[in-house]
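2024-03-11 09:14:02 INFO worker-7 job=invfold-0412 stage=load source=structure_tokens
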């Protein structure tokens, strides 16, 4: 089993679930297909699984490492954003909402630099605290070291193969937020990420 599944904490793990999305952070593996770094570049993107009939050998030598996410919300939680090539319409929607939030024009380099500062601190996942009522649908939070998706009136527990349990969304709790602040702002302005059907 290859170590190429990504959790909402941004960790790259060896689990069987493939999920609905692929992405990359550069070349992370060695010639034996072992992960040797958590990222190589600051352009962390989330892609569709199929695009224009292209085929790749997963984790081929000296090629970018294919990473897999349960869904788009998981990719956002880990710190990725939509790919500008295979998900051009989603990228443009994300960028447009980003510009509304920031009040300035944005391009991929600017967004990637901001997301890099939002997601990493001292080589570790950067999180922040906020009140649960302030958080939009599609945000990931951590409770008791487990990742939970905020969606509607409930919280859904992440697993590599789907959402395994749900609990009512508390009204007043302050929580640890996994999704970077900039992506939370984009979600707040109306971006609806693709969610695994086990949450519906």
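2024-03-11 09:14:09 INFO worker-7 stage=emit residues=200
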């Amino acid at each position: 089993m290859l170590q190429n599944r990504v959790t909402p904490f941004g960790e790259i793990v060896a689990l069987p679930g493939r999920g609905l999305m692929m992405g990359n952070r550069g070349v992370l593996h060695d010639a034996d297909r072992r992960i040797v770094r958590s990222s190589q570049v600051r352009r962390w993107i989330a892609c569709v699984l199929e695009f224009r009939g292209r085929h790749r050998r997963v984790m081929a030598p000296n090629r970018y490492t294919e990473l897999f996410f349960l869904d788009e919300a998981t990719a956002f939680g880990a710190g990725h954003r939509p790919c500008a090539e295979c998900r051009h319409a989603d990228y443009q929607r994300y960028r447009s909402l980003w510009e509304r939030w920031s009040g300035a024009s944005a391009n991929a380099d600017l967004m990637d630099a901001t997301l890099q500062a939002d997601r990493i601190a001292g080589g570790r996942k950067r999180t922040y605290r906020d009140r649960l009522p302030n958080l939009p649908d599609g945000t990931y939070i951590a409770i008791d070291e487990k990742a939970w998706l905020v969606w509607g009136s409930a919280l859904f527990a992440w697993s590599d193969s789907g959402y395994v349990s749900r609990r009512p969304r508390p009204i007043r709790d302050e929580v640890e937020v996994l999704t970077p602040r900039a992506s939370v702002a984009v979600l707040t302005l109306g971006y609806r990420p693709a969610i695994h059907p086990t949450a519906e």
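2024-03-11 09:14:09 INFO worker-7 stage=report msg="The longest helix spans residues 88-102."
2024-03-11 09:14:10 INFO worker-7 job finished
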